[in-house]
Amino acid sequence: MAKKKKAGLWRYLKEAFAFRWNLLFLGGAAAGALLSGHGDILLPLVAAGELTYLAGLSSLPRFQAAIDAKAAAEGRSSQAQLGTGGGAEKARKKIGDVLSHLNHHARARFQSLHSRCHEMRRIADGVSGTAGRDDGIDLRAPALDRLLWVFLRLLFSQQALQRFLDATDEAAIKRQLAELEAKKKAAETKGNDRIVRSLIDSITTAELRLENYQKAENNADFVNVELDRIEGKIQALTEMAVSNQDPDYISSQVDAVADGMAQTEDALRELDHITGLSDEMEGPPPILETDLTEVIEG
Predict the structure, then answer these.
(1) Is residue 273 pLDDT above 80, yes or no?
(2) Which of the four pLDDT bands, split at 50, 70 and 90, describes residue 221?
(3) Does residue 89 register a pLDDT over 80?
(4) Read out DSSP for 57-80?
(5) DSSP one-letter code for 5
(6) How far apart are CA 223 and CA 275, in angstroms?
(7) Of 144, 163, 211, 222, which is most buried by a Cβ count within 10 Å?
(8) Average pLDDT in the 188-216 region?
């Protein structure tokens, strides 16, 4: 099971020291020691008491858990603030560009999956009683954005591959290849070397066309299977947030699925020359938190 990232000892000590009642007590005790005329004796005692307090409070598991949650919430807030800059605008434009080039069926399929993620998160928060709170079940992990981004790119690749296959007649290529082979044999019988060399070149070209078509067909089959697989994974992960209320377990499952995407992402990079879609961004865009209707209309 993946563990939550700890805030660290220095953060625990800092938060314990900055606690307002501690500051009031420490300030009062120090002032009292100075005013007593025995500061050389009392101030070291105040310091020793403060160190004992800091060591004791910062070692309490409940205190550490509270500070860990606070640090995690601050991290999410920082990411959201960074998301308002040019990087987020570029990401939104990228998502909008891909969606705008999808046909109605593909776009509706993605929007349906995106909406389901939001619905499952809302239900999960309602079940756990953490709706609107920072300690709710977090389905905004970059790993889930990565899955959604791969799914969206696969939809784009599926459409491009299908367009290529529809525009290419495999049967016609095979007929042409058979005709060229027959002409080559006839030319060889007559001993016409110039025609034979020309026909060999034409045959090579036809074979390359046929090979390219078959490769595209195999790629299309792979993309179709991957779309169904990833769609099922995303649905299972989001539904898991409702049936299993352990955020660490859910996070570990999302990360594990995302880490297993290497083969699919390699295949997508190979398809870039067909689709014309290249992933120039560092990491997936924040798809789950993006208003798809807004980016499409924008």
Answers:
(1) no
(2) very high
(3) no
(4) HHT-HHHHHHHHHHHHHHHHHHHH
(5) P
(6) 13
(7) 144
(8) 94
Residue type, position 39, single letter: G
CA dist 33 and 267 (Å) reads: 72
Tokens of 244: 């299993």
Answer for the pair 99, 295: CB distance below 8 angstroms, yes or no. Answer: yes
CA angle in degrees (0–180, nearest 5) for 15-18-23: 145
Q: Which residue has the tokens 């020291």?
A: 17
In degrees and rounded to multiples of 5, residue 104 shows phi and psi of -60, -45
Quickly list H helices, 38-133. Answer: 39-58, 61-82, 86-100, 104-128
Whole-angstrom CA distances from 222 to 1, 155, 217 are 31, 12, 9
* CA-based nearest residue to 284, from 153, 165, 115, 120: 153
The residue among 159, 213, 162, 206 whose CA lies nearest residue 184 is 206
Spatial separation of the C-alpha atoms in residues 231 and 117, rounded to whole Å: 11
Dig out the tokens for 68 from the structure: 């860990």
At which residue do the structure tokens 């239900």 appear?
123
Asked whether the beta carbons of 196 and 188 are under 8 A apart, the reply is: yes
